[in-house]
TrEMBL record:
Presence of keyword Cell membrane: no
Annotated compartments: Membrane
Membrane-topology annotation of the record: Multi-pass membrane protein
Protein's UniProt name: RTA1 domain protein
Keyword flag Transmembrane: yes
Record keywords, A-Z: Membrane, Transmembrane, Transmembrane helix
Organism annotation: Lophium mytilinum
Residues passing through the membrane, by range: 38-58, 65-86, 98-120, 141-164, 176-201, 225-247, 267-285
Gene Ontology CC: fungal-type vacuole; plasma membrane
Classification via InterPro entries: RTA1
């Protein structure tokens, strides 16, 4: 790292680093103590762009609107974030591209997590509500709400950091701490989500009698290769996002001048590569392909119709849809 106590005689540039360039200012005044690698950041932006095109195609064709919304939001933010890093390659001093990179790449995984949460409820529909300790709708409401809170905290922290004056260390630190709180909350939500998924899988494996009569008719679907790929993809993507989020907590905890925040190699592995693998898994194991266009049949409602059993209200998969899926 570059020392911060060196004397720079041009006070105009020292007071407004947005005016700096690599030819006029020393690197210790830059947002990073390194120049972001052009090839690596262009590669990540391109990969996320390709995945975005695939997600839009599959989302529209399979009509998985909720899943598409989550993936679209996350991938767009990833592309914008890496566009900011590409700008910083040519000039690492301006603050706006740095914020573009910081905020977009920090909050993007919250949208990807939402896509995963929305899928679990529909997976439970296929196995039957008795395999789960919670109703399908509860997973979506609970974890998407947690995801939203995490997103609000991270966004608010980023906004406070962006609006803080250069000399206002208190506001700057508060913004970073709020972002860290949002990331920690996101990690905690994902860990609880993984624990509940493990519980469901254990119940299915140990107590096959819990699978309802209707969902038993879907055994052929559950034995397909694509179904298994989807289940492993969801698990892998969740783990990748958890690893990435833990890294970002450690990175922000050390501050922008810390060793982690200024180690591009670690960033490219634990931020970029983790999310490339997560998004690739969520595309290769796209639930719309497995559900074969019946994604919407797993929708739930907030109200229970009079005379309906609670389980039936929680799992409103129409009988004709089950028959179609089994065909």
């Amino acid at each position: 790292m570059y020392p911060k106590n060196l004397t720079f005689t041009n006070q105009t540039l020292a007071n407004d680093t947005d005016l700096c360039t690599l030819d006029t200012c020393p690197m210790y005044l830059a947002n990073f103590t390194y120049v972001p690698n052009l090839a690596g950041n262009v590669l990540y932006a391109a990969i996320f762009g390709i995945i975005l095109v695939a997600q839009i195609y599959l989302g529209i064709r399979k009509r998985t609107w909720g899943y598409l919304a989550g993936m679209f939001g996350g991938l767009i933010l990833e592309i914008i974030g890496y566009a900011g890093r590409i700008q910083l390659h040519f000039n690492p001093f301006p603050f706006d591209p740095f914020l573009e990179n910081l905020i977009c790449l920090t909050i993007a995984p919250a949208f990807l997590s939402a896509a995963i949460y929305l899928t679990l409820g529909r997976v439970i529909v296929i196995y039957g509500a008795p395999v789960s300790p919670l109703k399908p709708r509860t997973y979506s409401i609970l974890f998407v709400s947690c995801d939203f809170l995490s997103l609000v905290l991270q966004s608010a922290g980023g906004a406070i950091t962006a609006m803080a004056d250069d000399g206002d260390k208190s506001a700057h630190d508060m913004g970073i701490n709020i972002m860290i709180a949002g990331l920690i909350f996101q990690v905690a939500s994902l860990v609880v989500f993984m624990a509940l998924c493990a519980n469901i899988w254990n119940r299915i494996r140990r107590h096959p009698d819990l699978v309802s009569e209707d969902s038993a008719k879907l055994s052929a679907l559950r034995r397909t290769l694509m179904w298994r790929v989807m289940m492993w993809a969801l698990a892998a993507a969740t783990i990748f996002i958890i690893v990435r989020s833990i890294f970002r907590v450690a990175e922000l905890w050390g501050g922008f001048n810390g060793s982690l925040a200024n180690n591009e190699a670690l960033f490219m592995v634990f931020e970029g590569a983790m999310l490339v693998m997560a998004c690739s898994a969520l595309t290769l194991g796209h639930p719309g392909v497995c559900f074969d266009g019946h994604w919407a049949d797993g929708n739930w409602t907030f109200k229970t119709k009079r005379g309906e059993k609670d389980e039936e209200a929680a799992v409103p998969l129409k009988q004709r849809s089950i028959t179609a899926l089994c065909a």
